[in-house]
């Protein structure tokens, strides 16, 4: 499984979800565990890998009962040259995944819709695990919020298309029915179908037809009863967007051990085209204003806040970073710049992709999503200071405060209890309790100076977070540990490891700095000595640090 930024892509997806749940807890004081359904595949032992990962990580502190894993079937492949089945041996066809459109019928057949209802759910958000920025800022919350509030049946999260991207487009489609009525709805046209609909193929131009349409990102909101009705229909509607895709080579080994790479394809269906079932009908043709009345909708945001995928490994000599882990890392770093540059923190902008290919990123800044996940929330936890080119900043906890910190080098803050601590439930499973015994860190008027990452080391793999360092300042918080540094210069290589139940204070001293380690008072072991208080103020969320 792809190790992205030090963890698997699935771990990153669950982190995003837990960050939204933590935000809900901080606003309303209520624990919420969202049920998660995952469609896996038997290809490359994906289903087994996912299951073992969930078991190894204790089902992410959510309990096994909050997960449903259901396996996508494989379909036989045909030769593009003569239409014959591709076989590895007699009566054994070459089989490949048949597209994500099977998710709806498969979910119905496996009882996933009923399982969601049993958990009190009316709607769901859908995303692909390879899209590492899908939960950035407002994207998923706005998508689900609009769908629920306005009782829509399906929504798309969309953005501007990338030059030359192999991705579909979202369109408003108009049809004249046989009864003379007109139907309207939002749907998706896959890139493999552009010729069929008369959409020019080839590179995009600034005034090209394709560039006028927003990109389909496969981030959806669905109303569960509406989708279930289609999925249970037992006809072609339950497998939407059926296409024969012959644009990718198929590699297989025959009966005699010979390896073949041939032009071929298999029938695929696309999950987003279930939208074709939710059109609205009018007696006469509509010329304007039809969008507001539709059962489908689109939310639109800047591309790097909506989609950036880690689907394919970049070849060493390749300059294009599209859909590679390298390209998505740069988008994460650009998002980090957008967050922190609004906090009166001086830091250089991330250059274009060409500069990355030659020398790597300008810096590494990785912020745990629970610091927000809304940027408005994150920005209130940071204020003032600077981050120099070539620096590294990793913050892996939610209860964090940065005030006037000057960083030139590497600063890594990690906590065992990022958002809370687990307790054992009645079934003997560890369950995350948000806000309970969190790790906490305050940095005020601090200067961090060290040699940081060895940017000249040729084997650095930045998107894996596999890098060579000369020096770093590391803060490691065990359990409910707390760390506070105030008016101090931390120069050189240092590791501050704080035991569970303790608070460490670092201040300036004769030898550079002094360390004071004290046990937490018994009445503060669960709540900590301080926390961020969240309060809804109209359309905004205001934060205030509260000392206990």
Automatic annotation (TrEMBL):
InterPro entries hit by this protein = Hexapep_UGP3_C (IPR057388), Nucleotide-diphossugar_trans (IPR029044), UDP-sugar_pyrophosphorylase (IPR039741), UDPGP_fam (IPR002618)
Q: Which domain of life is it from?
A: Eukaryota
Q: Which keywords fit this entry according to its UniProt record?
A: Nucleotidyltransferase, Transferase
Listed GO MF terms? UDP-N-acetylglucosamine diphosphorylase activity
Q: Name one Pfam family in it.
A: Hexapep_UGP3_C
Please identify the protein, giving its name as recorded.
Answer: Uncharacterized protein LOC105133562 isoform X1
What start-end ranges are recorded for coiled-coil regions in this protein? none
Q: Where is each UGP3-like C-terminal hexapeptide repeats domain found?
A: 382-544
Q: State the species of origin.
A: Rhizophora mucronata
The biological process GO terms on file are:
UDP-N-acetylglucosamine biosynthetic process
């Amino acid at each position: 499984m792809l190790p992205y930024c030090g963890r698997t892509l699935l771990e990153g997806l669950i982190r995003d979800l837990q960050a939204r749940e933590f935000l809900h807890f901080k606003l309303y004081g209520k624990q919420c565990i969202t049920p998660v359904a995952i469609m896996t595949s038997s290809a490359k032992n994906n289903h087994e890998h996912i299951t073992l990962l969930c078991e190894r990580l204790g089902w992410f502190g959510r309990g096994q009962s909050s997960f449903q894993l259901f396996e996508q079937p494989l379909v036989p492949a045909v030769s593009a040259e003569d239409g014959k089945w591709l076989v590895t041996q007699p009566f054994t066809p070459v089989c490949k995944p048949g597209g994500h459109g099977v998710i709806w019928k498969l979910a119905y057949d496996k009882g996933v819709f009923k399982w969601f209802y049993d958990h009190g759910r009316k709607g769901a958000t859908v995303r692909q695990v390879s899209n590492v920025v899908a939960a950035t800022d407002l994207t998923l919350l706005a998508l689900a919020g609009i769908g629920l509030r306005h009782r829509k049946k399906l929504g798309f999260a969309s953005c501007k298309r990338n030059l030359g991207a192999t991705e579909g487009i979202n369109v408003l489609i108009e049809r004249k029915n046989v009864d003379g009525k007109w139907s309207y709805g939002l749907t998706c046209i896959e890139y493999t179908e552009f010729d069929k609909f008369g959409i020019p193929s080839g590179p995009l131009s600034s005034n090209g037809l394709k560039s006028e349409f927003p990109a389909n990102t496969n981030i959806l909101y669905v109303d569960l009863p509406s989708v279930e009705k289609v999925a249970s229909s037992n006809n072609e509607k339950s497998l939407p967007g059926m296409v024969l895709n012959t644009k990718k080579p198929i590699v297989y080994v025959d009966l005699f051990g010979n390896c073949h790479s041939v032009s071929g394809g298999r029938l695929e269906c696309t999950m987003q085209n279930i939208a074709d079932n939710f059109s609205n009908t009018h007696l006469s043709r509509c010329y304007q204003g039809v969008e507001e009345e539709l059962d489908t909708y689109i939310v639109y945001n800047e591309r790097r806040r909506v989609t950036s995928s880690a689907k394919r490994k970049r070849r060493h000599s390749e300059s294009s970073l599209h859909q590679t882990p390298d390209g998505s890392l740069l988008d994460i770093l650009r998002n980090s710049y957008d967050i922190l540059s609004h906090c009166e923190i001086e830091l250089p902008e991330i250059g274009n992709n060409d500069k990355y290919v030659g020398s790597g990123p300008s810096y590494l800044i990785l912020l745990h999503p629970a610091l927000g996940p809304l940027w408005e929330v994150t920005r209130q936890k940071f204020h003032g200071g600077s981050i120099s080119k070539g620096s590294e900043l990793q913050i892996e906890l939610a209860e964090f405060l940065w005030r006037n910190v000057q960083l030139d080098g590497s600063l890594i803050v990690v906590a065992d209890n990022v958002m809370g601590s687990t307790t054992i439930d009645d079934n003997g499973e560890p369950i995350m309790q948000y806000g309970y015994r969190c790790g906490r860190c305050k940095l005020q008027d601090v200067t961090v100076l060290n040699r940081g990452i060895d940017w000249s080391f040729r084997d650095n793999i930045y998107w894996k977070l596999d890098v060579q360092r000369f020096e770093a300042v590391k803060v490691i918080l065990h359990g409910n540990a707390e760390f506070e540094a105030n008016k101090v210069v931390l120069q050189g290589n240092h590791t501050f490891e704080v035991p569970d139940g303790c608070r460490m204070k670092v201040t300036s001293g004769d030898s550079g700095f002094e360390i004071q380690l004290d046990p937490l008072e018994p009445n503060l072991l669960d709540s900590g000595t301080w926390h961020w208080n969240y309060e809804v103020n109209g359309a905004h969320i205001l934060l205030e640090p509260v000392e206990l």
